[in-house]
Amino acid sequence: MTRQKPAPPSADVRMRGFASRTTVEAALAWVDGQCGRLSAERISIWRAAGRVLASGVVSPIDVPGFARSMMDGFALQAADTLGATPYSRLEAQIIGQSLPGKPFDGIVQPHQAVRIMTGAPLPAGCDAVLPAEQVEVEGPKLLILDPVPPGKNVAHVGEDVAAGGTAVSAGRVLRPQDIGLISSIGQSEVEVVSQPRVRIVVTGNELLPAGSSPAGAQIADSNGPMLAALVARDGGVPLFGPGPLTPPLPSTSNYLVPDDPSAILAAMQADADVILVSGGSSVGQEDHAPSLLAEHGELAIHGIAMRPSSPTGMGRLGERLIFLLPGNPVSCLCAYDFFAGRAIRSLGGRSHDWPYRKLRLPLARKLVSQVGRVDYARARVLGSKVEPVAISGASILSSTTLADGFVMIPADSEGYPAGAEIDVFLYD
After folding, report:
1. Which end of the chain has a smaller Cβ tally under 10 Å, C or N?
2. d(CA 283, CA 289)
3. Does residue 250 carry a pLDDT above 90?
C-alpha cells in the first residue's frame, strides 16, 4: 500500500481550522522514521527488572559447573541398583555424605553409596542419585528398593547454561528469572537500552494541579498523572521540569504551564528526548503550541484524520521529538497511544506495537463510523460479545474507565454490523 506523505502544515491555523488532515497511516510512518533506538548503558542487575537488554549476555562459564544432585537421596553407581525391588532388595554400604558447599572427599566404589542433599556435588565414581523414598536405611547399610538408570536425578555440567552460549538474548524486557540467570553466570551488571526521558507539559489557565478540588471555572488536571503512568508503562522516565533524571513529584511550578507563548516555548525546550504537550494543540485563539513549534522547529504534522484526537500535532525542536496532544482527556489518551507511546517504546528498544491484549469477538450491536477517518471506539466485553461504549465524547474520561478496551475502525469503513467479528484491544 502506498503511504501518503504528510503535507507541510501552515504555521498558524488558529481560528481558521484545518485545510486538510494527515492520515493515521502517514502519521505512523513519520513517527517510525524518527525513532532510532537510544544508546546503551550499564546498570546493576539489582535495578535491571523491566529494562530492555541492549546486547545478548554470553555466559563465560558452565552452569552448573559441576555435576550435582537434583534431589535428596543417595549417590551411587546405577549398575548396583539393577534388579532391585521391594521384595528383592539390594545392599550398599553408606560411606559418607555430600552437602551443598561440602562435597564428599573420596571415590565411591561399587556397592557403596553416599548420602546426598539437593544441589550437592555428585561424588567421584557415582553416576546416579536414588531418591530417599526408594531406599531403607539400617545403620550403615542401604537397602535399595528400586533401580535407577545412569544419569538419573543428576544435573550435568552446563545443563542450565553452557559456557560460550547466550544466556539471555538482546531485546528482552528483563524479567525476574532472567536477572536470576544472569546472576548465576557471575554477571553483576547488564547493558540495557537507555530509557527515553519524557518531559510532560500540561497547558491551560483553567487547570488546577492533579488531585485538587475543582472550584468555580477551574478544573483539576487529569492528563498529567495519566500521561506519567503511560510513559512509565512504556519504559520512559516521566519528567515534570528541567530538574534531575529522577524528579520529585510534580508541582504547579514545574508541571502546569499557563497559556502563554513564552512559557510554553520554554517548557518545549527542556532537556529531554521527548516532549509531550497536553492542551493548546488545536485551532483556538489560545492554542499556541503548533505555531511555536512551526516557528522554532519543525511542525511536521498537524491535524489527523481520526476521532477523537484529530487536533494532534508532531514534529521536532532540535533533537527533541515533540507531540502536541489534545487537552480533552480521551483525545489525549488516544493520541498518546497511537503516536507518542509508539515513539517512546521504539526509542527504548521495545516493540512499537500497542502493549494491549487482543481478542476477536462478535459485536453485540452495530458500530457506525464515517469513511475517511479512523475511529477509536471504547467498548466493553460482555460475556462472549463486544458492546460499544462510545466513539464521541472526547472529554468524558469515564468512557474509558467503564470500557474494557477499544475497537479501531479503519478509515475506509462505515463501521460494522451486529454480529461482525472484530478485534478489541484490552486496556489491561
Report:
1. N
2. 10
3. no
